[in-house]
Specification:
mainly beta; 6-stranded antiparallel beta sheet; 1 helix
Length: about 270
Amino acid sequence: MPQGLPKFLSASFVSIGPDGLGHALLIPARVEHILQKDARVRISCETNYPFSNKLHYNIEASAGFTFHVRVPDWYVPESSFLSIDGGPPKPLAPEPHTGMMAVHVHAGKSTIEYTLSAALRIIPRANATISVYHGALLYALDVGQSVVPAGISAHSCCQPNDHYESLINTLPWNMAIDPSTLKFHPAPPNASPDDDLPSPIWSPKAPPSYFTAKGCEIEWPLLHCVPAPVPLQVNGKRTCTGKVVDMVLRPYGSLKVHMAELPTIDLGLDI
């Protein structure tokens, strides 16, 4: 197991002040904690975040306390909300410095429904390139993947009969994207926070959300067997060397072969 995963889980919930408990890393998790004055708290979070932006909390507490949830800076305020015990949705009001929102939870059993709304975020990069985000996820160009056995390793640190594999793209990588054509395809809207995701989720085409867009190949050579620096625009433009085609962008972590910083091009399309 990667060392980062247990550390990530152990840091998911944090103590905040004398009578507060916060969910800082938004993952499905459970915690039992004793606050000051021996107040006992048990919290479970059911969610498919970051593939779904809905979180459901079941809380049991022997005394009232303050629960905090982290509100990412990318959230859309107009359509993000929190509801306690089936009550009316409340707009999010995170503390500006910490990004945490405080909620008073009474003694006994409680439920909280927490919904974050997200939108496409296009982050400019160098040489007229962009990165594409939605919610907490970075999306990268899917260039296909072919696994080619590369023989038995002779490295002294490897176990006997360990094998090497090469991952080779099966689609063009030297693509430029027209950002105006980006279209987000989310997980099914009726998906429940506790619906099972494919396992392993970080495998090709396993995550339920993706982007489509229009783009084309451009003149972009290899240098020492890897992509050369992104070619500069000529007179503020780029030129297609092939036909305009459909592109698919998937969550970065699910693609072992990918392009995450994409040159832009204006295709003049009315989408």
